[in-house]
Each structure stands twice: as structure tokens, then as C-alpha cells.
Amino acid sequence: MRKYLFSILLGSSLVIGCTKNFDETNTDPRTAPDVPASALLTKGMLDVSGYDYATWRSNFIYTTLFVQQFASTGWPQGDKYFYDEGYSSAQWADYYPTTIKGLSNLVNKTSENADEVNYNSAGRVLKVIAYMRLTDLYGDIPYSQASKGYTEGALTPAYDKQQDIYNDLLKELDESATAFSAGKAFAGDISTYNGDVALWKKATYSLMLRLAMRLSKVDPATAKTWAAKAVTGGLISSYTESFRIKHLSGTYDNPNSHILGYYVGARTELRGDNFKFSKTFYDALNSTADPRLKILFVVPTVGADDPETDTPGLQKGLPNGTNPSLLASGELKTFSKLRKGFVDATDDNILISHAQTLLLQAEAAERGWASGTPATLFHDAVFSAINQLKLYGIDGSLFNDGTNQAFANAVPYAGTLDQKLQAINTQYWIASLLDGRESFSNWRRSGYPVLTAVNYSGNYTGGKIPRRLQYPSGETGVNKTNYDAAVARQGADNFVTRVWWDKP
Q1: Are 122 and 189 in contact (CB under 8 A)?
Q2: What is the 3-state secondary structure (H, E, C) of 436-464?
Q3: Is residue 215 part of a domain?
Q4: Any idea what the CATH number is for the domain that residue 450 is in?
Q5: Which residues contact 64 (CB under 8 A, 6 or more apart)?
Q6: In 3-state terms, the chain is what percent helix, strand and coil (to 5)?
Q7: Cα separation of 270 and 260, whole Å?
Q8: Is the distance from CB of 71 to CB of 319 less than 8 angstroms?
Q9: 7-48, pLDDT tens digit by residue?
Q10: Domain residue limits at 56
Q11: Overall number of domains in the chain
């Protein structure tokens, strides 16, 4: 620390003592004053995909455990509903200083150049993904004034209403989809689309459908308008068209794999038994003889790093809320965990899947908001969700297309509207494994699957499954006026206050 302070003082004295050639002296030769849009796009895509900081905390420790896809004796914060300020604020702390700032720079830089319209449109779509994650987790957030500290002096940005944010995000997608141009430059795209404008448009409309359906309870008229527009615009049409960010082993590992992976440099959360499949998730698949059970579930045959077995009779899920002291020595290792082939460093990160999109379209069609035959869309979605697992490079012998297609066609889809919505959104929960933030949002929006809350001693919510994350505590100091206004409008800043679109 003394060396650091000394360097600051020394630097200050040099500036004060020498003003000759001031411009040259104060230009850092290591910086790039005009970073190409392609480089900004690549960085923005990696930032949106995420790194281990927020992925570990908001995606795994909190949201995958909230919705009972996984269970954990090592991370009670999500499994048993305990508050941790650093974990709760991780997505905010990760996205605002880097992701939102960088994408805003990309969009601003390319907004006046017609030749860079694809960079501009892609940047806007990526911003929608980032802001959607933020507002879905926290509710009202800085939006219209965010990232304007340098350009406009907005050092204490107002918190926009979630309703206003959603309306603007939908507009952003509409304008971006229209603006994409096949005749313009589009380098630096590290998604599996590789600069294919037609696929980017499909992903944009698929994301529009996701936002539209989030409003199904709070504003059905707006949901209907935008769902119809999205379906008409053209959606992702196969599991291989799912919007995926590519990753490289090393600095740019897949963020999920970096938390759960088995390779050098990854954390040991999966290898060390900190994340087991939840009994809720296991029961949902086992009760229907779902072929994904054999594809996803394994237990070690001897120890944590020893060969895995997918023998059906050995699989079982860990109940959420399990007190580790009640488990016999070594018993934790007998519960199922995710097959390690799903957490390789080079795995693509799926942000918008074909299966999710089909399921949302099925619901929209069932409600009379969009075209399509709901039952066909539903069964196609289940089959696509199974095929989606092939994208991880898993042993092909685990897949039998004929058997899987027959299973998908036989998944029950009948009865009342509510029964059909339960079928749709339970499948959405299964298809969204590894994207806990999206699973958490759609569960709150739809109410399905029906989950039984944990009521562990000393929990933060009074035995209720959380409905949001809490704002960073620092906001009460650096942005108190706007923070207070948001809390007064939205409700108490805790885990059980519902965001605007989350209606009973």
C-alpha cells in the first residue's frame, strides 16, 4: 500500500512539475483510442456470457438452488434461503461496470455509421440480454441513465420502473431486428452464428418472444402484441440454431464449466459434491422415464474423481434443505450429479434455446396470441430439448433419436388451459438447466413447476422461496435518493418482494 501511495504522489509531482508537451505526456501509449467495433463486439459477447464471479453466485449458488434444479449442503444461501450481500449483488457488480459500460460504448460508437449497423444491432440485442437479467433479478434498476457518468455526468442514476425498462427493451429488439443488414460488415461474432445476419434476426425475435411472455400476467395486452410480432418476424427453427456463445479453454472458459468443471483452473463445486441434482428435479424426470435422466445423471463409482456411472437404479436426488449433519459419512457422494462432459471449458454457453422458444410459442398459441398448433409445438420442444444436449459433445451412444422422439410425443399435453401451462412450463424448467437465472424468472412468471419451499432454521424469507435478489448495500450510500425512491415504489428491499411482472 505504501508503494502504491508513493507512486500516486510521484505521478502527481511529475504532472505538476512539467507542463511542456502536455498532450503527449498525458497520452497513455498503451491505450487504443479507437477500438474497432469488431473487438468491442467480441468483448461484449464474452461479458454477457459471463465470468465465474456472477455465474457462481447468482446463477448457481442462488437461482439454480431457488428453483430446485440442484441442491447443496455446501451453499445454504440458495438451498436454504440465506442472505449474503456479496452473492446477492454479484450480477449487479459484474454487469454494470463492465458489460453495460462496454456495450453502451459499442452502441454509441456505431450509431452514426451505416456501415456498422450490424455491430450496432448486435450490441443492442446483447444489452437487452444483460438488462433483462438485471431487471428480472432486482426489479427497478438504473437503465436510462446507466453508463452515462462520463458522457453526461450521471453519477447517481435514477432507477427506472421495470415496466418502462421492458417497454424500451422490446423497442430495442424491434429496431435491431429490422436494422440487421446482410450486406454490411459483421466480424468479431463469437457466437455459433459467425456473423450470419439471418440467424441473428431469428435470435432477436426469439428474445422478443421471451420478453413478451414475461408480461403474460401483468400486461397481457402488451404480451399479445409483441408475441405476435415475434412469431411473425421468424424464430429460431432448430436446436442447432440456438443462440450460443463460443468459449476457449484458458482465459475464456465457458462460465458454467469454470464453476462446475473438472479441469485444471476450474472450481471444484461439482467435483467436490457442492452441487447435486435436487430430488425435485430427479423425481420430475424419473416419474416419466425421461431419457434425459440417463444422459444427465451420474454418480461416482468410487470417489469424486473416479469413473462415473449412469446406471438408473443408482441415481437419486438430494432433497433441498438437507442438513449436512444428518448425512452419514460419505453418504453425500451417493447422490447424483451432472455428467462431467457438460462442463468442459470449451462448451458453448446457450443463451436462447430452440426448445425454450418453442415452449413459449406453444403458450402464446394456447392463449390465442400467436400462430402455431400448441400440442405440436410442445412435443417438438421436448424433442429439441433432448437433442440440445448433443451440443455439449456428449457420447452419441447416449442418444436414440427414435426412442427420444417417441418419448417426446408421449409427454402428456391435455386438459384445461392451466394444465397445459403446467406442462409447458415444467418442460421449460427442465430445458433451462444450467441457466438458473432464466429458470428462476420463468418459474416466478408462470408458477410452474409447483415447488415446495424449504423452511430451514434461521432462513431469511420465513420459509418462502425468494422472488428477487436484494440491491447492493453500497447503493444506500452512493445513490441513496434514487435507491430510496425505488424501494418506496417497488416494496421492501428483501428476497420476498415481487418485481413488477411477478404477479400471484
Answers
A1: yes
A2: HHHHHHHHHHHCCCCCCCCCCCCCCCCCC
A3: yes
A4: 1.25.40.390
A5: 70, 78, 275, 434, 436, 439
A6: 55, 5, 40
A7: 5
A8: yes
A9: 322 233 323 333 334 344 444 444 445 899 999 999 999 999
A10: 37-251+345-490
A11: 1
